[in-house]
Amino acid sequence: MTPINQTEPWQALDTLAREHRGQSIASLFEGDAERVALFSREAAGLYLDGSKNRISRAVLDQLFALAERAGVPDAIKAMVNGNKINVTEDRAVLHVALRDFAHRTYHVDGEAVSPAINAVRARMSAFCDAIHRGTHTGFTGKPLTTVVNIGIGGSDLGPLMVTEALRPYGLTGRQSHFVSNVDGQHLADVLATLDPETTLFIVASKTFTTQETMTNARSARGWFLEKAGGDEAAIARHFVALSTNERAVTDFGIVAENMFGFWDWVGGRYSLWSAIGLSIALQMGFDRFEALLKGAHAMDEHFRRAPLQENMPVLLALIGVWNRNFEGCATHAVLPYDQHLHRFPAYLQQADMESNGKAVTLAGAPTAWATGPVVFGEPGTNGQHAFYQLIHQGTDVIACDFIAAAKSHAALGDHHEKLLANFLAQPKALMLGKDEASVRDDLAEQGVPENEIDRLARHRTFPGNRPTNAILMDMLTPETLGALIALYEHKIFCQGVIWQVNSFDQWGVELGKVLASEILPALKEEDVPLTNHDPSTAALIQRIKSVRHD
Ligand code: F6P
After folding, report:
1. Residue 483 CA, ligand 1 centroid: distance in Å
2. How does DSSP classify residue 442?
3. SS3 of residue 322 by DSSP
4. Is the minimum distance from the CB of 155 to ligand 1 under 6 angstroms?
5. Are 296 and 181 in contact (CB under 8 A)?
6. N or C: which end of the chain has fewer CB within 10 A?
7. Which residue among 89, 152, 262 has the greatest number of ligand 1 atoms within 8 angstroms of its CB, and so is best to mutate?
8. What's phi and psi for 158, nearest 5 deg?
9. How far apart are the first and last CA of the chain?
10. What is the spatial distance between Cα 310 and Cα 31, in angstroms, rounded to a whole number?
11. Is 354 a catalytic residue?
12. 199-204/239-243 β-pairing
């Protein structure tokens, strides 16, 4: 495999980046009536406008050539064919199969996986029905109206983000809680609000070995048993598991009938489409969960069928590659102008940073180019009054995605028009900025004395020329949310292909887990020698112990 930075399109992009230095985004619109159309795509209920990036037509052509040269079309085929593209774990990557509505049969190792997917979906649907109709009740015969999802990472962020995003679709009288942190305060805070007679605990863990989840699950089980007067049989009515590890689930004490399975070819951060989505289905109904899957499926169909030049996830990925590798943007802000999408940036942090936070190529060599950016974000307009200052005038250029829906679920005065005005104004300000001459003119018009103008002008000047994408949908619905998530999943996939990394493993999180289990005995027990630890860690352990044992 030729290193990507030694391919012709990459080198052409390098040259173009040098030639275009200093060119403004605004100037790229001049005399180009087609620019908005050239950089816009529409698919699965979403509209993407990438025209406010510092990308010329020549750059765009080379970016498409880069995608072709990197083998994006073949990579898409390899993924949907069930090839083991997660090479370090020898696994297929088939989350698209979980949301297939085209009656395709997907295969892994020559075996059709679609029947098993449909069987789990049918069981999830029947379970939701039993809970909603009240035929599956708690140990005292009351309906189970509250769900506590215990999970972390992909077993938490996806269902939590979707449940929040689709609040208007929640069924009346139903409540959901998500407990992830091993910090006991998280579980304790939730337990304090619960009625054990009406609560269903979902233990969500692909591996069923994750320390945080198993600790929380055991504590929740202990709490529940105490409330249920030690009635072990009641566990079966109040605890279900979502996992790939049946043995660990039964060892924990959850019977196989109460387990909804999935498979090793579903990555944790791609698992909300699988049984991990049970908390979503319970909160808003299985039909709404299916609508979410259908939205993602619509984006999948576009992704696999549309030519590179017309492909929305491909364009989003290429704009990201340009900004990361040729414009030096190490940070990417995700800015949903939608309060219900307040967990979307956190969800995308895992999707993007766990996938493409890699510095070794598929061939095992160090990457000689930058890969995944730092992803962060908050809903607008809140972020405007917090960190946007740095985006407008800081020393780093931060690429931003602005996301909004034209219509709101909340018909409240002119709130939505104001929200949208800000959604449009910020990218405009970031692109155009404000030069010193116009700052001076404005201040003079306001009657500010000349010496004051000299003092203030530089501070009030905006460099502009900061790259942004806009993603617009009619309304945030299960379908458009599904499409939005799938758009980003495929974007991340294409970028991983171009950067020649494995986007589907996450070895980087393992070392910390191992070291935490080595440190734990030193915190829990007396007389454990600290000589294994570096001096700083040993001193911190000592200090913690001395406070705790006071
Ligand atoms: O530690 C990272 C990770 O493995 C994520 O990839 C995963 O989503 C999360 O932990 C939770 O894992 P599990 O679902 O197996 O508990």
Report:
1. 23
2. H
3. helix
4. yes
5. no
6. C
7. 152
8. -65, -60
9. 60
10. 23
11. yes
12. parallel
Q: How far is CA 506 from CA 38, 334, 343, in A?
A: 36, 22, 21
Q: Tokens at residue 102, please?
A: 């085209």
Instruction: Please report, in tens digits, the pLDDT of each residue of the chain (550 residues total).
Output: 899 999 999 999 999 999 999 899 999 999 899 999 999 999 999 999 999 999 999 999 999 999 999 999 999 999 999 999 999 999 999 999 999 999 999 999 999 999 999 999 999 999 999 999 999 999 999 999 999 999 999 999 999 999 999 999 999 999 999 999 999 999 999 999 999 999 999 999 999 999 999 999 999 999 999 999 999 999 999 999 999 999 999 999 999 999 999 999 999 999 999 999 999 999 999 999 999 999 999 999 999 999 999 999 999 999 999 999 999 999 999 999 999 999 999 999 999 999 999 999 999 999 999 999 999 999 999 999 999 999 999 999 999 999 999 999 998 999 999 999 999 999 999 999 999 999 999 999 999 999 999 999 999 999 999 999 999 999 999 999 999 999 999 999 999 999 999 999 999 999 999 999 999 999 999 889 999 999 999 999 999 999 987 7
Ligand 1 pocket mutation, candidates 210, 216, 273, 513, criterion most atoms within 8 A of CB: 210
Interval between CA 276 and ligand 1 midpoint (Å): 12
C-beta 206 within 6 A of ligand 1? yes
Whether 513 is catalytic: yes
Distances (CA, A) of 225 to 202, 218, 230: 15, 10, 5
Structure letter (DSSP) for residue 326: I
Could you give the residue ranges of the DSSP H alpha helices within 24-89? 25-29, 35-38, 57-70, 72-80
CA atoms of 61 and 70, how far apart (whole Å): 14
Enter the tokens of residue 55.
């990308």
Residue type, 232: E
The pTM of this model reads 0.97
DSSP H or E run through 239: strand 239-243
**Element spanning 374, H or E:** strand 374-376
The token duo for 166 is 């689709």
Q: How many C-beta neighbours within 10 Å does residue 526 have?
A: 7
Comparing CA positions, the residue from 174, 96, 178 lying closest to residue 343 is: 178
Has 385 been annotated as catalytic? Answer: yes
**C-alpha to C-alpha distance for 444 and 447, rounded to whole angstroms:** 5
Closest CA to 216 of 180, 252, 242: 180
Q: Specify which residues 335 forms β-bridges with.
A: 402
